[in-house]
Amino acid sequence: TLIGLYTFDDPDNPLADGSGRDNTLEEPGGDANPTYGEAAGIQGGAFTFDGGDRLIAPININPGEIPELTVGAWVKTATLDPGLRKVMGGDNGGWDRTIGLDNREGDFRYTSFVGNQRPVVGTPGPESVDAWTFLAVTFDQPNNEVTVFVDADVSSLDDDLIMVTEPTGFGDGFDTMAIGGLSPDNAAEGWQGEIDNVFLAQGILDAAQLDRFRVGGRSAIE
Predict the structure, then answer these.
(1) Helix or strand or coil: residue 5?
(2) Smallest Cα–Cα separation from 160: which of 146, 169, 150?
(3) Among 103, 112, 160, 173, which residue's Cα sits nearest to residue 138?
(4) What sign does the CA torsion over 77, 117, 209, 180 have?
(5) What are phi and psi for residue 220, nearest 5 degrees?
(6) By C-alpha distance, which of 78, 80, 136, 139 is closest to 107?
(7) Is 110 in contact with 148 (CB distance < 8 Å)?
(8) How buried is residue 159: exposed, middle or buried, by Cβ count under 10 Å (0-12/13-18/19+)?
(9) Digit-coded pLDDT (tens) for 107-137
(10) Neighbours of 214 (CB within 10 A)
(11) In the chain, is it the N or the C terminus that has fewer CB atoms within a 10 Å radius of its CB?
């Protein structure tokens, strides 16, 4: 069940939610707003983030609200320098549900927090500033598992979608979430680059369904 879908393809209303849930995105205002480009995405429009901005989705992604959750997006990093840059997150200081890039206790990689310890390891990192990456994570609170799915370069779809599962346990963070950052209330660990076709689903999507998203893009999600 989709609870948020942000294709950014309507230049008159790029913050619209295509899931039917009316979870329209909000801009923090001023210098914290990312830059919209109607042809900047892997398909149509996208937002470009500079590390100090974000969008805010009025969706509570905490395990107490949605025990089983799948989130994902197509992203393109603007830098290969290792660092902490998040695509989405609702963290309030307790290593809550987030996805993005991280280089703590492992290689520079696409990953997710797992709770109060190091992020998921064994996943690939970015290959090029020109490559679009498909990134998705399932948060399965009843089974205390998080699974990260990555295709670092979707220009070729013949390779397998890489997936890594680790044990997890989360508390609750904020009751809204950021796109382009770690947290909705500040610019910590901000994304640098483009983000397109963000989706959130209530429930655990399996590898086959996420691979259909990866291959079919926006039309496979809608």
Answers:
(1) strand
(2) 150
(3) 112
(4) negative
(5) -75, -20
(6) 80
(7) yes
(8) exposed
(9) 999 999 998 889 999 999 999 999 999 999 9
(10) 21
(11) N
- For residue 86, the Cα-to-chain-centroid distance in whole angstroms is 7
198 close to 134: Cβ distance less than 8 angstroms = no
Amino acid at 72: G
Is the per-residue pLDDT at 9 higher than 90?
Answer: yes
Pairwise CA distance, residues 176 & 183, whole Å: 9
Amino acid in position 33: N
**Strand locations in 80-191 (E):** 85-89, 98-102, 109-112, 133-140, 145-151, 162-167, 177-179
What one-letter code names the amino acid at 209? Q
Which residues, 6 or more positions from 189, have their beta carbon under 8 angstroms from its beta carbon? 84, 85, 86, 89, 100, 181, 182
Question: In DSSP terms, which residues pair with 192 in a beta bridge?
Answer: 50
